[in-house]
Amino acid sequence: QKEVEQNSGPLSVPEGAIASLNCTYSDRGSQSFFWYRQYSGKSPELIMFIYSNGDKEDGRFTAQLNKASQYVSLLIRDSQPSDSATYLCAVNGGPGYSTLTFGKGTMLLVSP
Amino acid sequence: DAMVIQNPRYQVTQFGKPVTLSCSQTLNHNVMYWYQQKSSQAPKLLFHYYDKDFNNEADTPDNFQSRRPNTSFCFLDIRSPGLGDAAMYLCATSRALESSYNEQFFGPGTRLTVL
User: Fold this and answer.
1) What band does A108 get if pLDDT is binned at 50, 70 and 90?
2) Do A11 and A106 touch, CB atoms closer than 8 A?
3) What is the pLDDT of residue B103?
4) Contacts of B33 in chain A (CB under 8 A)
5) Chain B, 54-113: which have a CB under 8 Å from a chain A CB?
6) Which pLDDT score, from 0 to 100, does residue A98 have?
7) B43 in reach of chain A (CB within 8 A)
8) Residues of chain A with C-beta less than 8 angstroms from the C-beta of B9
9) How much is the mean pLDDT over chain A?
10) What is the DSSP string of B31-83?
11) Is the pLDDT of residue A95 over 60?
């Protein structure tokens, strides 16, 4: 049974701070890792994905992957109140056709 | 803009009364997925179509069925909704190519209420 674990939160940070969201996964064969943002009552929105060890940056977002530790994280720099949402980590088996396994998500609250 | 569309956005049905949710996409993706998501839970994959091939998850109740008449449309049928089926139903699509990483794109969801 593939599992993806996230701290449910809420993670509270002040506006302008760095928010750090973490995710661990059980399937060592996992190859692609996705971060989705989900506002309350809305559907998940893809923020970014990563498949190589190390860091991947996209604007204020940085995804970090450590396959040896089976750990992936998302850093949000200069957090804004509009970043307040639940962040879902998802994992799949690799390139091509594969289904995703989602974590339950971490709720982030950014206070003005 | 290319997108995933779900109708209706809100659906109210009575206990035991069949309901159909629809999903359409203009992305021309070959894979379409249906998820069920309850409050504070992870999206739960019900089934998916890879082109015309139907793939059911082992723990999806028989009460849930799906149809994909063509590339663009996919339907979720709930034959006899129970109170426990009240949830957000999410449709997603992906382009399953060896060179891709199978990013899934979600529609806005249908919120189902069972009275």
Assistant:
1) very high
2) yes
3) 87
4) 99
5) 88, 90, 96-109, 111
6) 72
7) yes
8) none
9) 93
10) EEEEEEE-TTS--EEEEEEETTEEEE-TT--TTEEEE-SSSSEEEEEESS--G
11) no
